[in-house]
Predict the 3D structure of the following.
Amino acid sequence: MSKFVNILPKVLLWVLMVVSVVAIAMVFLGGSVDPSAEYLEPVYTDVLLYWIGISVGIALLVTLGFALVQLIKGMAKNPIEAIKSLIGPVLLIALLLVGYFGMNNYCFFTSDDIPTFDGAITLAMNQLTNMCMLGIGALSVVAILLIIFAGAFKSKVK
């Protein structure tokens, strides 16, 4: 059984890689829908978009699954530390909820700012945009602070 467990990730990696390469090759080598159109659209764009969605979904499920397993194992060993490990994800979810529900009236973009957009920006689109902008900004600040202070903290520990 352990030999199977050791080989399975390698086989899955190669299968995912082959499917990805085939999907990309289909987009670039599959031709266009209408060669006389103003914009050339590849025939198999939808295949690539579906594959990207499936890949992201698989990655999300696997990541959350392993995190949940680790949390359950941590609860058995040390419940206090396991609860403390939830602080980061809970704060991120709270930040995203504040961005989604708390900033309804603030609009980062107008429909005139987006050249290829024909239509009106709805409340749901505005809320989603605000949530994403706030989340990206917060994660960028955290990443920059970690980069800056990780070296200083590492040198103090030595």
Summary: The mean pLDDT is 82. The first helix runs from residue 2 to 29. Residues 86-158 form one domain.
